[in-house]
Amino acid sequence: MRAILGGFGAACCFATATLCASRAGRLIPPSSVLAWAMVVGLAVTAPVLGAVPFPDSAGAAELGWLAVSGCGNVAGLLLAYSALRVGKVGVVAPILATEGALAAVISVVAGEPLERAAAVLLAVIVVGVVLAAVAPDPAPVAAAGGLPAPLLAALAATFFGVTLFATGRVSASVPLPYVLLPPRLVGVLVLALPLLAGRRLRLTRRAVPLVLTAGLCEVCGFGSYALGARHGLAVAAVLASQFAGIAAVAAFVLFRERLTRLQVVGVSIIVLGVSALSAVRA
Known about the structure:
Layout: H1 2-24, H2 30-49, H3 60-86, H4 89-96, H5 99-109, H6 116-134, H7 149-170, H8 176-197, H9 208-229, H10 233-240, H11 243-254, H12 261-281
Helix pairs in contact: 1-3, 1-9, 1-10, 1-11, 2-3, 2-8, 2-9, 3-7, 3-8, 4-7, 4-11, 4-12, 5-7, 6-12, 9-10, 10-12
């Protein structure tokens, strides 16, 4: 039951963060959305560090993986928020959910054997991403411009995959608060402070509750997944990956997003493929 609650809690938190980021990104620049979300996340995470000592056994390797995790997560979130600014949640969120599949690919490149079932599911997920990306959009987002949303989402998922791989390498030897810290610290130092110094950090009254919620949900979602995974990794992983489906349905109800049949087919393939792959890999 704890694995179910943890995984479902993570899915709800990640879906909420995605929805809030999609709306906030159309009120202020995505860089400002991410900067404020990281400030909120750091404010929540930093006080916990005093109660949990950093392990003496952790050395340069662990610090290196934490740095990779932090930088990869910030880069991925910036691309994801940019995709949500110009694309529909129903298309972007499922592509972002392929982060676990990409982490599996990175693991294979690093030397981990790949089961035949996992290889087939990876190919199925690729088909779903292609279908969702190439399908014509009858009602494109008014703010669309620059790189297309599916491409931005795919790049974001790649960085998230690197983050998951790095986190997996260090999570067993470093307490959870220190795993949560690097992205928030990098986001504040590399993004929020330079934007503030250059007077380019934006925030409007309508965006305040959105960035606050996004920042809190990013931290709570990761923590909920980590707690659920301790009692059942397979169940927690499959349920957490359903954030894409929850976000897509919520966007349909709340934002009146409409997808073409081909987009729906592509998104459905991605969601089912990611769920099956999570179960196989776990």
